[in-house]
Amino acid sequence: MVTSNNDCFRNWINRLWVGIGSKMISNLYFVESKEKPEEYKIGVVWVIGDETKEVISFLCPCKCGDIINLNLLPGASERWKYRGNKTITPSIKRKTGCMSNFTITGGMIKFHNDVENR
Length: 118
Ligand SMILES: [Zn+2]
Prior knowledge:
five-stranded antiparallel sheet; alpha+beta; binds zinc ion; four-stranded mixed sheet; 1 helix; 9 strands
């Protein structure tokens, strides 16, 4: 009984480490800017706009090379929220290209599908 519990615990730890290694990018760097950057870098998220932030723009974290633009302004059919703590809500589900599905919380990316393994 005790042995099987230990195995269970060890499996859980192993899964946890695999999960961190394959699915998480730690510490995204957020930059507030009035204009879109000339050059994008993986791991850097641009929050663009003057006094009103209009769009969040960054390279897709799956490294497919696409630029993702998230609308922050009200009125559009799809809108995201950014409150300055490296957290973007709701989750991001790409409908084209790599079809990545992920959340950004506290600067950490968590994938909800397996695109990063392709
Ligand atoms: Zn991608």
